[in-house]
Amino acid sequence: MPLISDGSVVFAEALWDHVTMDDQELGFKAGDVIEVVDATNKEWWWGRILDSEGWFPASFVRLRVNQDEHMEEYLAQFEGAGAGQEARVGLGLNLGPGLPCKEQMRSNVINEIMSTERDYIKHLKDICEGYIKQCRKRTDMFTEEQLRTIFGNIEDIYRFQRKFLKGLEKKFNKDQPHLSEIGCCFLEHQTDFQIYSEYCNNHPNACLQLSRLMKLNKYVFFFEACRLLQRMIDISLDGFLLTPVQKICKYPLQLAELLKYTNPQHRDYKDVEAALNAMKNVARLINERKRRLENIDKIAQWQSSIEDWEGEDVLSKSSDLIYSGEMSKLSQPQAKSQQRMFFLFDHQMVYCKKDLLRRDMLYYKGRVDMDQMEVTDVEDGREKDFNVSVKNALKLRSLASDSVHLLCAKKPEQKLRWLRAFADERLQVQHDRETGFSLTEVQKKQAMLNACKNHPAGKPKAVTRPYYDFLLRQKHPSMPSALPQQQVFMLAEPKRKTSTFWHNIGRLTPFKK
Fold first, then answer.
1. What is the dihedral of CA 344, 350, 356, 361, to 10 degrees?
2. Are the beta carbons of 404 and 373 closer than 8 angstroms?
3. Is 478 among the domain residues?
4. What is the pTM assigned to this prediction?
5. CA distance 100 to 90
6. Using the 8-state DSSP alphabet, how is residue 263 labeled?
7. Do 130 and 199 have their domain in common?
């Protein structure tokens, strides 16, 4: 990167949380400012936050130059056709039969929303009646479980979208589309759109199941016969199954376009503005749930690598790693300082001891129920409960018993990071409660089974942190072996490299314009 190679200090802003259990990587929260030290690799950069350094995925940040990017690039195509017309509006001219340009453009956007919504309903109907209905007749070829994996909850989505379209039709002004007030329809159903979360999370499994079946000619011929019988357009089933994923991404873009051509004095302006924020939040929520579900396998694998594990699995209560790091711990009654590695999850914190010789190996030592803990900052000096002098300390006091834990960080900056992490943990728990997020028993069980497969009984466990072994061999840390996790929904965020999962969206979607 030229900005870095010329010796300039370059800072990046985190777009997403990057929580890691690897000392080799740099963890941060969305909004954190990172000093970019090395950006020679396209996928992973080396950065610094305060006194912490490590690798982080380049796709999780954007440089602090050109931060004012919005949706102009997406809207450029639409505006291109009317660029000359808008120039004329600046001179006070009108477009068409007495209709100002901005109102004409709003009519165009409204018409496009209504048109794509009707097309979408047809595609959903074709999938439900053309494919699912026929598949259920062939019990010799499909089990109900297979159909649930392939089609997810698309029938629920179809029922909801029909209701949503009826609401749009009532608010649609056919004679004067620019007067339509459709913002309230999105606001009324903003919680209903969360059913897309289940579908989007299941979609990778659907693609996998479908690809297995399509290796057999009888399924290829069957699905093609379904398409022809329903007189559907010439798109493969995987293309049709992609439409709900793209649709939930498209709503915020359409509403942003509508807002752009809605005068602030328009009766629909405030509702459209609120609807845009609501649909962005829906997409963010879906994206966050996808990230959480992807992370449970990592958490299960982490647990399986810990020696002498006791008690219930981490996943029984938790699904997200908030923060991790090393602190010294004092607990009553013996006020003996112990150096421990702490892993703060939602609802609980696990602490482990490092092996004296193999520093990459961790031994389970205990956990703290964060739902029953009160976190307080402790001033430097003598602490009254333990009667010891402390520095950079914080205290965990149980609300259900007399237990007290005194934790000391090495530096003031690290203490502040931990205090913020404990606050984030409570916010995460509250947010999950409000949005109804939780793991199913099947998801927990599958994650632990996957972890056990990776660590068969009687075989040595995989090293969880190759960083220490690496330092014995080289002067500079190696690149992380895993590619950065890609987010599903990009909306108005800066462009980043897309994963192979989304490579065929443009080719497969029936919504080409």
1. -80
2. no
3. no
4. 0.58
5. 11
6. -
7. yes
